[in-house]
From TrEMBL:
<keyword id="KW-0812">Transmembrane</keyword>
<feature type="transmembrane region" description="Helical">
    <location>
        <begin position="106"/>
        <end position="127"/>
    </location>
</feature>
<keyword id="KW-1133">Transmembrane helix</keyword>
<feature type="transmembrane region" description="Helical">
    <location>
        <begin position="243"/>
        <end position="261"/>
    </location>
</feature>
<comment type="similarity">
    <text>Belongs to the 4-toluene sulfonate uptake permease (TSUP) (TC 2.A.102) family.</text>
</comment>
<protein>
    <recommendedName>
        <fullName>Probable membrane transporter protein</fullName>
    </recommendedName>
</protein>
<dbReference type="InterPro" id="IPR002781">
    <property type="entry name" value="TM_pro_TauE-like"/>
</dbReference>
<dbReference type="GO" id="GO:0005886">
    <property type="term" value="C:plasma membrane"/>
</dbReference>
<feature type="transmembrane region" description="Helical">
    <location>
        <begin position="7"/>
        <end position="36"/>
    </location>
</feature>
<feature type="transmembrane region" description="Helical">
    <location>
        <begin position="210"/>
        <end position="231"/>
    </location>
</feature>
<feature type="transmembrane region" description="Helical">
    <location>
        <begin position="80"/>
        <end position="100"/>
    </location>
</feature>
<feature type="transmembrane region" description="Helical">
    <location>
        <begin position="177"/>
        <end position="198"/>
    </location>
</feature>
<feature type="transmembrane region" description="Helical">
    <location>
        <begin position="139"/>
        <end position="157"/>
    </location>
</feature>
<keyword id="KW-0472">Membrane</keyword>
<keyword id="KW-1003">Cell membrane</keyword>
<dbReference type="Pfam" id="PF01925">
    <property type="entry name" value="TauE"/>
</dbReference>
<feature type="transmembrane region" description="Helical">
    <location>
        <begin position="48"/>
        <end position="68"/>
    </location>
</feature>
Length: 264
């Protein structure tokens, strides 16, 4: 049990540093690694990925608060955008978690792998959309929020890999896009975690779980990631971030390949 706790702490520490250093949500690492740990613990195989997704989103609740406060202090959060997009975010994330809880682990793992490769390509080649328009009206932004929230609930992330490109496309400056995306991550994490808790209550799960949230993993990952995220932010000013993003992208490809092999 001590070894498992150490794994949770190491995973959280790594995810926190990466989030602070590269601006990448920890869910991209937390979800696959938790699924490997849960499989080693022999948790119910039909619910392993549901537990990894729910636990990842629950951990992002805590890390996103720290992140959005830091960006808000620098005046980098466009709260008007946050208010407009949050209803769609909450609706899409909660609905997505309801749908995901009824899908098989194999399907969710396949969806996650496709998304992982998409993010890896985006990071490796530093793909950024060119600004072409202004922010859309309420109806469209609700739909965009619903889409970002729905996909985020399927892959257990705070949505930054989708919300930042969308905001850049809508002529939002880079530092504001990142700060606003950090704030958007909070309603995604809150609605997603609530959805996975509610939809997992009826499932046959081992002790120390609340719905599809594994409480020991949540405590270990969240505590370590909160502690190390500021370190990552400091390192961002000292290390070659562009090169590290390529290395991290390759790591995502390795993780995705391992998950594909597990599926086969």
């Amino acid at each position: 049990m001590v070894t498992v706790w150490l794994l949770y702490l190491v995973l959280g520490a790594f995810a926190g540093v990466m989030a602070g250093l590269l601006g990448v949500g920890g869910g991209l690492v937390i979800v696959p690694v938790l699924s490997f740990i849960f499989a080693h613990q022999q948790l119910p195989p039909e619910h392993i990925l549901h537990l990894a997704l729910g636990t990842s989103l629950a951990s992002i609740i805590f890390t996103s608060i720290s992140s959005l406060r830091a960006h808000h202090a620098r005046g980098a959060v466009n709260w008007n955008v946050v208010r407009q997009i949050s209803p769609g975010i909450v609706f899409g994330t909660f609905l997505g978690s309801w749908v995901a809880s009824r899908l098989s682990t194999a399907f969710l793992k396949g969806f996650f792998v496709v998304f992982l490769f998409y993010v890896a390509i985006q990071m490796f080649f530093n793909i950024k959309p060119q600004p072409h328009r202004q922010l859309p009206g309420k109806g469209t932004i609700f739909g965009v929020g619903g889409l970002i929230g729905g996909v985020s609930s399927f892959v257990g992330i705070g949505g930054g890999s989708m919300s930042v490109p969308f905001l850049l496309w809508c002529n939002v400056a880079m530092h504001n896009a990142i700060g606003t995306s950090a704030a958007i991550g909070f309603p995604i994490a809150l609605a997603g975690a609530a959805g996975y808790v509610a939809n997992g209550l009826a499932a046959s799960l081992p002790p120390h779980t609340l719905g599809f949230v594994h409480l020991p993993a949540l405590m270990g990952v969240a505590a370590a990631s909160i502690a190390t995220a500021p370190l990552g932010a400091k390192l961002a000013h000292l290390l070659p971030v562009a090169g590290l993003k390529k290395i991290f992208a390759l790591l995502l490809v390795v993780i995705g390949t391992k998950m594909v092999l597990d599926l086969l």
